[in-house]
Write a structure and sequence with these properties.
Elements lengths: L17 E5 L2 E4 L4 E3 L3 H4 L8 H13 L11 H13 L4 E7 L2 H18 L7 E5 L8 H5 L4 H4 L10 E3 L6 H13 L4 E6 L16 H11 L3 E5 L23 E4 L11 E6 H9 L14 H16 L2 H22 L3 E7 L2 E6 L5 H10 L5 E3 L10 E4 L7 H22 L4
Parallel strand pairs: 5-6, 5-7, 7-8, 8-9
Antiparallel strand pairs: 1-2, 2-3, 4-10, 9-10, 11-12, 12-14, 13-14
The structure holds 4'-deoxy-4'-aminopyridoxal-5'-phosphate.
The site of 4'-deoxy-4'-aminopyridoxal-5'-phosphate has 16 residues, from helix 4.
Family: Belongs to the class-III pyridoxal-phosphate-dependent aminotransferase family.
GO molecular function, one term: pyridoxal phosphate binding
Protein name: Aspartate aminotransferase family protein
Length: 423
């Protein structure tokens, strides 16, 4: 066997090579077509090969691709931050750019801790999070993640943050209050949650009232609320930000993935005026940052993505067509006993499978049938989720949704025949 040089996720797996993509479709080197039913890792919100983005990328690269943020500012980053402020609710007006969702949540964590330090309450350092959550792979972000599989190897190095239950019922919001009382509010900086649980929960959606109660508890005990909208943000759920479904304004929002629709790495930590105020008065700098933070090229790309979304009314399309897709999935569910639940909002939908089957096996069959799905694993120690996400680009048309549904059904039928030994 020829030796390899690229470290891929599974070192012994033979990966298919993609040659190009257009809209919701990807094509491999043999010419096989795939529907990108998961937008990669729920990232490519506006689809592949959008000309406007490619043009913006080229124009910025020709002007200047990189300047160091400690030496200069640049127009693209300034404009992007202003655009984000115009989109976010409440007084979420300040943006700190990073390069990945993990960095965005970890920066949120640091900003929260710094905020309390600046206010003379330096003992508030703990971040409460939920089981069945994923906030990122770096050590700080992993400390906050209720994702047993990814934590396992490093558990002795991690802070023991996740303690409250996944948001299956309104009663689970009450657990936050109990946890704060047990730890002591003077030790707690923030609570972090994915508005709709993505990679670790298969689009698990809290009931109405849950986040209203979370906000109340955070305010009562002087605790910041961080919404990790890395997956749910930028229109994915049919609103620009998923927290808007419940009318709740967080203190800090983490963004990533859809911010650039995958065209280049960029992510962001959006901070409220209230949280920034003591930092501006005190240290006058956020104690974090990366070489590539706020680089002109990524900023120009993200700006082009957001403008494209606005011009083409992409969020409204995601809401409308998301309902149509949900309906298609509900109909498919009727025919297959191994599907337990369909859930989610907009174009972030989840299928929960019965424990009798394995999500990754279904996902492999769908791959053969030219449909990409995203596995959702997470859970609480000893009880993993068994779901997949159906999350195509927000720009998918009705006709394309019909084709996605056909391929999904063909995959399920084929899987069932294989289980029966007939295929
Ligand atoms: N937060 C959430 C909610 C995510 O879904 C992810 C990625 N799946 C991350 C954080 C981490 O983002 P990244 O992989 O870009 O570091």
């Amino acid at each position: 066997m020829e030796r390899e040089y690229l470290i891929k996720p599974f070192l012994t797996k033979q990966y298919t090579e993609i040659s190009h993509g257009k809209g919701i479709y990807l094509y491999d080197k043999s010419g096989k077509e795939y529907i990108d039913g998961s937008s990669g890792a729920v990232t490519v919100n506006i689809g592949h090969g959008v000309e406007e983005v490619v043009t913006a990328m080229k124009e910025q690269a020709e002007k200047v691709a990189f300047v160091y943020r400690s030496q200069f500012t640049n127009d693209s980053a300034e404009q992007l931050a202003e655009k984000i402020a115009s989109m976010t609710p409440g007084d979420l007006n300040w943006t700190f750019f990073v390069n990945s969702g993990s960095e965005a949540t970890e920066t949120a964590m640091k900003v929260a801790i710094q905020y309390w330090q600046e206010k003379g309450m330096g003992s508030k350092q703990k971040i409460i999070s939920r089981w069945m959550s994923y906030h990122g792979i770096t050590m700080g972000a992993l400390s906050m993640s209720g994702h047993p599989l990814r934590r396992k190897r490093f558990v002795s190095l991690l802070e023991d943050y996740p303690i409250v239950s996944p948001p299956r019922g309104i009663e689970h919001a009450e657990e936050l209050e109990v946890a704060i009382q047990q730890i002591g509010a003077e030790q707690v900086a923030a609570f972090i949650a994915e508005p709709i649980v993505g990679a670790a929960g298969g689009a698990l959606t809290p009931p109405d009232g849950y986040y209203e109660r979370i906000r109340e508890i955070c305010d009562k005990y002087n605790i910041l609320f961080i919404a990790d909208e890395v997956m749910t943000g930028i229109g994915r759920t049919g609103k620009m930000f998923a927290m808007e479904h419940w009318g709740i304004v967080p203190d800090i929002i983490a963004l990533g993935k859809g911010l650039s629709s995958g065209y280049t790495p960029i992510a962001a930590t959006v901070v409220s005026d209230r949280v920034m105020a003591p930092i501006i008065q005190g240290s006058k700098l956020i104690m974090s940052g990366h070489t590539f933070s706020a680089n002109p090229l990524s900023s120009a790309v993200a700006l082009a993505v957001l403008r494209y979304m606005e011009t083409n009314d992409v969020v409204a399309q995601a809401k409308k067509n998301g309902e149509y897709l949900l309906n298609c999935l509900e109909k498919i569910k009727e025919k297959y006993a191994f599907i337990e639940e369909i859930r989610g909002k907009g174009m972030l939908l989840g299928i929960e499978f019965s424990p009798t089957i394995l999500n990754t096996n279904i996902i492999d069959v769908a791959f053969e049938h030219g449909l990409l799905l995203y596995p959702a694993v997470g859970g609480i120690y000893g009880k993993d989720e068994n779901c997949c996400l159906v999350a195509p680009p927000l720009t998918i048309t009705r006709g394309e949704i019909d084709e996605l549904a056909r391929r999904l059904e063909r995959s399920f039928a084929s899987y069932e025949r294989r289980m029966d030994g007939a295929e």
